[in-house]
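JOB MANIFEST
job_type = single_chain_structure
chain_count = 1
residues = 147
[input]
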Amino acid sequence: MNLRDKINQDVKDAMKTKDSKKRDALRLLTSAFKQIEVDERKELNDDDVIKIIQSQVKRRDDSASQYRDAGRDDLMQKELDEIEYYKEYLPAQLSDKELSLALKEIISKVGATTPKDMGKVMGAASKELSGKADGKRISECVKALLS
């Protein structure tokens, strides 16, 4: 069973258990899949699905921070709940220690020594650590290691 089938099955399960929050969150996700398929005229594989989920998590996170700044805790909580539903389908994230070790290896591979080499490191790290760590976390760790 691929990831998309699992999400569709979870939508059905949420409907059966009358979990409207989960059902609605996962329906938003499936509509994002369909939108990409129509726009790009392609069948989504698991890697595509993961990238879409990551972008949805990032959108929800941005929205939650804007709602927090505006004092709308009710809407912020809704966004945070959706993030939790989505994270269940993402690969396990690297711990800070694992991320640091992986980045040290990448830095030595590309021969980076100064903060000016950050672009080289980020390019390699984004490809190698895709799905395992957020770009923001990677960027912060690379800055710390190169400075």
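[summary]
Residues 46-70 form the longest helix (25 residues).
The CA atoms of residues 60 and 79 lie 5 Å apart.
exit_status = 0
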